[in-house]
Specification:
The chain is of the alpha+beta class and 363 residues long. It is built from eight helices and 21 strands. The relative contact order is 0.12. The structure holds adenosine-5'-triphosphate. This is Molybdenum ABC transporter ATP-binding protein.
């Protein structure tokens, strides 16, 4: 029996101090939904409402047909009765208990018949075997966070709420933990809401994106489609760009290159160790895409794609424009100078060649 929620709906209003959260979300109850937005936009407040930690929240929350809040009917399911696992920025472990005891604490809250994540599964997934008898103060920040994630999993949540779980870690520790998060999402079918400020984490982990601003939902949808929209703040600044799902087509050991195929094209990247057929996500920043009228000859750039201009928009500087391109089914963004746009007569429908100067692999 698969008990994973298939839909999550949250219609919520919360007023606290001068801030008000007012959202109406209908989300797929599968995969990772990134909650993204500037500081103070209400990301944590949204998670707290879903977890039942904001008693004043009004509205309705339904997770896979199970109602957790319906203020019109006076229904408020208390936090400990909602099947959520909450992972905070700081691991919040019990310092007087060993890792094993911390994990047991999470698991014992759940009756045996309702357990969906087994002890061995969580310990293995987060690689905690060697750490079980340690005290939390003898763990690194990254290890502590792995324990916190395992503890949340062992409560067998229907919904995993992660509030900037990597924000307190330095770049090296972050890079250590990301593969664990990826594995977790690949191997366990637990819907996850993942709050993050970091575009690279979102690009790597998320399937869906919710953009919050001033307590309201600016946009939500599938990650690739949402990142390719020119009317959202994600299209501006240095981080703007798309995420593309691809598969390894072939390796070229002579030139130390790997060819990746995706809907509508191929790109070459540095030699990968994974086998042909392996799926990889990569990011193409808008700033790394330039446009040409013809297929360039005599260039060192090997990643050239035939594209059709879909849409043009103002960029964040008057010197640039943003161009949404259709690479035979895959959306790509380009940020080019206004001068180049005029010289190439870039307009919707025009056929061009996109030169991709750099591809950022997400793993
Ligand atoms: N208990 C509270 N009482 C009054 N105002 C609060 C309370 N908690 C949060 N706020 C306010 O609500 C707004 C949203 O806060 P929230 O923590 O949800 O934002 P956020 O998007 O998670 O921000 P950050 O990225 O900085 O963590 C902020 O303006 C904050 O000051």
């Amino acid at each position: 029996m698969n008990e994973t929620p298939r839909t999550i709906s949250a219609r919520l209003q919360l007023n606290q101090g001068g801030f008000s959260l007012d959202v109406d979300l209908h989300l797929c109850g599968r995969g990772v939904t990134a909650i993204f937005g500037p500081s103070g936009s209400g990301k944590t407040s949204l998670l707290r409402c879903i977890a039942g930690l904001e008693a004043q929240a009004a509205g309705r929350i339904e997770v896979d047909g199970e109602c957790w809040l319906d203020s019109a009917r006076g229904l408020f399911v208390p936090p400990h009765r909602r099947a959520v696992g909450y992972v905070f920025q700081d691991a919040n472990l019990f310092s007087h208990l060993s890792v094993r005891r911390n994990l047991e604490f999470g698991m014992k809250r759940v009756p045996v018949r309702s357990r969906r994540v087994a002890w061995d599964q969580a310990v293995q997934l987060l690689d905690l075997d060697a750490l079980l008898e340690r005290a939390p103060d003898r763990l690194s920040g990254g290890e502590r966070q792995r324990v916190a994630i395992a503890r949340a999993l062992l409560t067998s949540p229907r919904l995993l709420l992660m509030d900037e779980p990597l924000a307190a870690l330095d770049a090296q520790r972050k890079a250590e933990i990301l593969p664990y998060l990826e594995r977790l999402h690949e191997q366990l079918d637990i819907a996850t809401f993942y709050v993050s400020h970091a575009p690279d984490e979102v690009a790597r982990l998320a399937d869906h994106l919710v953009l919050l601003r001033d307590g309201a939902v600016l946009a939500h949808g599938e990650l690739g489609e949402t990142l390719a929209r020119l009317d959202l703040p994600t299209a501006f600044g240095d981080e703007a760009g798309v995420v593309i799902e691809s598969e390894i087509i072939e390796h070229d050991p002579h030139y130390h290159l790997t060819r990746l195929g995706f809907v509508g094209g191929e790109v070459l990247v540095g030699l990968r160790h994974e086998p042909v057929g392996h799926r990889l996500r990569f990011r193409v920043h808008a700033r790394d895409v330039s446009l040409a009228l013809e297929r360039a000859q005599g260039t060192s750039i090997s990643n050239l794609l035939p594209v059709r201009v879909a849409q043009l928009a103002e960029a964040d500087t008057p010197a640039h424009v943003l161009v949404r391109l259709d690479a035979q089914g895959t959306a790509v963004l380009a940020r080019i100078t206004r001068r180049s746009a005029d010289q190439l007569a870039v307009a919707p429908g025009k056929q061009l060649w996109a030169q991709i100067k750099s591809v950022a692999l997400l793993d």
